[in-house]
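Progress against Task 2.4 (sequence-to-structure conversion) is shown through the following example record, which the project officer requested during the mid-term review.
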Amino acid sequence: MTYGMPKKRGPFGTNEGDMWTIPGSPLQERFDKEGTGTVVIVEMMVKDGVLQECIYHTDVPELIEKATRGHELLIQARAQRN
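Structure tokens generated for the chain above:
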């Protein structure tokens, strides 16, 4: 829980809780071939006090939907930085 003034969010993909999919990655292609509906997600999480990218896979529809929206936001954020 955060107290005091909220921190200003950085570009998408740099904040705790940001999540996105990685379509076309070798890992995602492997899951696609298996046909299980499993999706690879990257999520920014704090581990051992450090904000870092954590990669996991899931078949939970709500997480997949959120991460798919996040993928579009990540593309937009990267386009704005370039």
